[in-house]
Design a protein that fits this description.
heterodimer, A: about 400 residues, alpha/beta, Rossmann fold, 2 domains, seven-stranded mixed sheet, six-stranded mixed sheet, about 20% strand, B: alpha/beta, eight-stranded mixed sheet, 13 helices, about 15% strand, globular
Chain lengths: ~400, ~300
């Protein structure tokens, strides 16, 4: 079904797409030059669709069918070093297999964009979502965003090029979307026109460097130790600047699509909230539904949705966390021997300000519904009001029996 | 260009005083690479000795554009770089300059991937027959019985893999072996390769003084002995046929080959060899010659497609 409509004079094309196809449409609109990928469920459809676009001539780009994910990221690293706008996508084991190249890309400051369709890491083999894969690479210098729905995954992909290629940033971006829940679920999405995107996202500038023949010029060679540390410092500062750029880009994107998400975080019913829930990804839709129902029952609760875990929206976490009575963080990834990944970060920021409770749920794709979130949030509020110790050091695991009876 | 003139030329390539070991064969190979392709080449270097030879910033050891990349990535990085040049219309020759580990072992999957896609790149493997940069550990191309720090007493227990023949099986347009002992042969091969498009592979034999335990001044002499004893065969696959290259032609006839002991005795890595071992190595050399002969005939007769 297609429906054309206008946003302030812009042409929009309404289509019903699954997340993976929406990502490939965004990549096409970004006019990438080189795509390289290796298939892995549940990401595969993205790169199949892009292959079809390239083969049919719909997208004028080179498509490199490599032998592994390591090679996929290596190939786009090479293309990006040659000045091209590039794209790759992966999931789970594929992302782990790329791990070395991830650092090579970010430490070279190349604005590569990659979709990570989140999937559990084996064993046991499991193709369903949790956030362990994307969070495993959180220290690597990549910007990492988590989408809540198909349209946001599309928008985040387009915005990723604008953010990564910004002179103030020059860092690669991961757009994470939940496997199957977003990648294989069809939702309506309004696609902006190529003309509007071309105006908003001009071709990539030759930054930070472009390899060319004829000159003695080495990238990545040995240097004094102090230079390594200095380069890390530049990345640190670029990550800091990225916070502003992410907010700016998300704001200006509204001019062409009418859509904006609040930058680093989305604030949902937080203004008068006594209790704040924090989380990432697709289940935030269910958490919002839970919050609406709890609000109807009189609970003053809101959601601070972490859209980007890198750079981490520390200011928003302080602002909304410290004005609430207590914070509940619901994680879909765990650092074994420590706690929920996001909970650990939030707790370290809010230490001495607000008590934080950490809940780990939905690993391996265990389904979580709005009723589950209502239970979790109610229990959290009761514990606080009963003066029970809210301490993130006690990580709560939400276990389900998986139909074993 | 004469050899004397070649050695004096200050064309693009390794710079004087770079961090290579004394008498390093890579510098000889890089010099020829710079001489032949210096104006057009962009060089992708996976981890290895050349990562060091390239110099410590802010100095440079090689005045070529060099993209340093992780061990197991060179084939893919070069593919991507070439794709970018094709998109933007840049006239550049993308060259992978790799060691044996980066090509035959840890980097083999990505090399094989680039080859089977017939990527328009040149891959040169400067093979010093062990992981020299990490201190002489056995690699997939280390010969049988050679002593390394991971085969320190009995020597390597397996045969070496023939990476050039493996690459030939990828049905790519150009494969050659070369030796730093025969710079003009290597130069001619690079020149011919540069005029062909598609995946081109050159396996360059590079004797390593500290790794093979021989005196530094003998790098070229050892390389030549490898050819003169028939242990290293120079050949070229082009236009669908294999030809034995000029410096090796004579040694097709066993009568002209020097005893392999002449090649082995200079190298400390072979000090463990018994006479039986040397006889065995000699038999393997004969077998290699027989095999390449059979292979040449098969290609000529068109029995292989």
């Amino acid at each position: 079904m297609r429906l054309r409509w206008s946003w302030r004079g812009s042409d929009m094309d309404r289509r019903v797409l699954i997340g993976n196809i929406a990502i490939s449409e965004a990549v096409k609109l970004a006019r990438v030059d080189v795509i390289s990928a290796y298939p892995i469920t549940p990401q595969t459809i993205i790169v199949e669709k892009l292959a079809e676009m390239v083969d049919s001539g719909e997208l004028n780009a080179k498509y490199i069918r490599v032998d592994s994910e390591h090679s996929a990221l290596a190939a786009v690293y090479g293309a990006s070093s040659g000045g091209s706008r590039v794209f790759t996508a992966t999931s789970s084991h594929g992302l782990l297999y790329m791990y070395e190249m991830l650092w090579w890309v970010s430490n070279s400051r190349l604005p590569v964009v990659m979709a990570v369709v989140t999937r559990s890491i084996g064993p046991p083999w499991n193709i369903h979502t949790d956030h362990q894969d994307a969070l495993t690479v959180r220290d690597s210098g990549w910007i990492i965003g988590f989408a809540e729905n198909v349209e946001e995954a599309f928008d985040m992909t387009l915005q990723a090029y604008k953010i990564s290629e910004d002179k103030r940033v020059l860092l690669p971006s991961i757009v994470a979307l939940d496997g199957f829940i977003l990648s294989h679920t069809a939702e309506p999405i309004d696609i902006p026109s190529q003309e509007d995107i071309d105006r908003w996202l001009p071709p990539r500038e030759p930054l930070p460097f472009v390899m060319k023949p004829g000159e003695g010029f080495a990238v990545g060679n040995l240097g004094p130790d102090e230079v390594t540390m200095e380069l890390r410092w530049y990345i640190w500062r670029a990550m800091e600047r990225a916070k502003r750029v992410i907010n700016e880009v998300d704001y200006e994107y509204k001019d062409i699509t009418g859509r904006s998400y609040g930058g680093l975080t989305e604030r949902y019913r937080v203004e008068d909230a006594d209790y704040i829930v924090m989380g990432m990804g697709s289940w935030c839709g269910d958490i919002k539904e839970a919050i609406d129902m709890l609000r109807d029952e009189g609970y003053r609760v809101g959601l601070l949705r972490i859209r980007y875990i890198r750079p981490l929206p520390i200011q928003d976490i302080i602002k909304y966390g410290s004005r609430s009575k207590a914070v509940l963080v619901i994680d879909r990834a765990v650092s074994m021997g420590y706690g929920g990944v996001l909970a650990g970060e939030v707790a370290s920021i809010l230490r001495g300000r607000t008590p934080v409770k950490g809940v780990v749920a939905g690993l391996g794709g265990v389904d979580m519904r709005s009723e589950d979130f209502i239970d979790i949030i109610k229990r959290f509020i009761e514990e606080y009001e009963l003066d029970l110790d809210i301490n993130w050091l006690n990580t709560y695991w939400i276990m389900k029996d998986g139909g074993r009876g | 260009m004469s050899l004397a003139k070649l050695s004096e030329s200050r064309l693009k390539g390794p710079l004087p005083g770079n961090p290579a070991c004394p008498a390093c064969p890579h510098n000889i190979g890089l010099k020829i690479l710079g001489m032949v392709l210096g104006d057009k080449a962009v060089v992708v270097v996976p981890a290895g000795c050349t990562s060091i030879i390239s110099g410590v910033w802010p100095t440079a050891g090689i005045d070529l554009p060099i993209l340093h990349v992780p061990f197991a990535s060179a084939g893919a990085v070069a593919s991507g770089l070439k794709a970018a040049y094709q998109v933007h219309g840049e006239d550049a020759i993308v060259v992978v300059w790799s060691g044996d580990g980066g090509a035959a072992d840890i980097g083999f999957a990505t090399l094989s991937g680039a080859a089977i896609r017939n990527e328009d790149i040149i891959v040169i493997v400067s093979d010093n027959e062990a992981y020299m940069n990490t201190g002489v550990q056995a690699s997939g191309t280390t010969p049988w019985k050679a002593l390394t720090t991971t085969s320190p007493i009995k020597g390597k227990s397996e045969e070496r893999k023939d990476i050039a023949m493996i690459m030939l099986m990828h049905k790519i347009p150009y494969v050659a072996t070369a030796s730093i002992g025969y710079p003009l042969d290597f130069r001619d091969k690079l020149l011919r390769a540069s005029k062909i498009s598609g995946f081109r592979f050159i396996h360059l034999h590079s004797p390593c003084p500290p790794g093979w335990r021989f005196e530094g001044g003998k790098t070229v002499e050892i390389a030549k002995l490898a050819v003169e004893t028939g242990a290293w065969i120079l050949w070229e696959y082009i236009d669908g046929n294999i030809e034995i290259s000029r410096p090796s032609i004579k040694y097709s006839d066993k009568a002209y080959r020097k005893p392999v002991k002449e090649y082995l005795k200079h190298q400390g890595r072979y000090r463990n060899l018994s006479d039986d071992d040397i006889r065995y190595i000699e038999e393997r050399i004969d077998e290699n010659w027989r095999n390449i002969g059979i292979f040449m005939e098969t290609l000529k007769s068109g029995r292989m497609t």
